[in-house]
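User: Sequence in, structure out. Go.
Assistant: Echoing your sequence, followed by the C-alpha cells.
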Amino acid sequence: MSKTVFFTRPNYDDVTAYLYHFSKELLNESRSRGFKTLSKEGQNATKTVVEGVIKKNNPDFIMFNGHGNEEVICGQNDDPLIQYGENHELLRKRITYALACNCAQKLGRTVADQNTTFIGYSESFAVGMDINCQASIHRDKRAKMFLEPSNLLVKSILKGNSASEAVSKAKEAMKKNISLLRTDTSPDAKDYIPFLFNNWVCLEVLGQTQAKL
C-alpha cells in the first residue's frame, strides 16, 4: 500500500506566497513517486481541515509551509494548525518538516522521540526576496537560493533518504549558495549572507533521525 504525504500551503502574504509557489513542484514530485499526495491550500489550510486530514489519512510525512513560533505552526491567516499543549500529539509516529520559524524549539522537541521525526528551524527562517520579482515569483533568483535547499530536503525524503541525510543535503546546498553570494558582484548580494547562514545554523532534525519513508 502506498504511503501518504500531506502538504499545507497557505497563501495570504508575501512569505506564504513564495512558499506556496515553490512547494508546487514538491506535489508533482510526490505524485510521480507513487505516494498518495494530499494538499490543503489557501482558505483550506485551517486547523479544522488539517486536523481532519491527519486523523482520517494518518500521513507518513507532513510538510507544513507557513508562519510559526516556538509553540505553533500556522496556516491560512495565521490560523494555528498545530499548537503545543492542544493538538501536538497529531505529529507523533510520523516524519514532519515545518518550513516555519522557530518550530524546532519547544514544539519540535516535545514531539520528537524514538518513533517520531521532527525537522524544522530553531530560530527564524528567512526568505530573501527581490522586490522587483514579487509579481513574478518564478523569476526571483534570490528566493531560489533560500527555498531550493528546502525543496531539496523534501525531495530527498521522497526519494527514500533518511531524515538526517535529507537535512545534510539541504545544508550542503545552503553552504554552496552562501559561497556563490560571497563571489556575487551585485551590490546587495552580501546582504543576504547572514540570513542564509542563519537558516543553515538553525535547521535541525530531532527524534528518530534515521527515519525514512
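User: And one key feature?
Assistant: Residues 153 and 166 are 5 Å apart (CA to CA).
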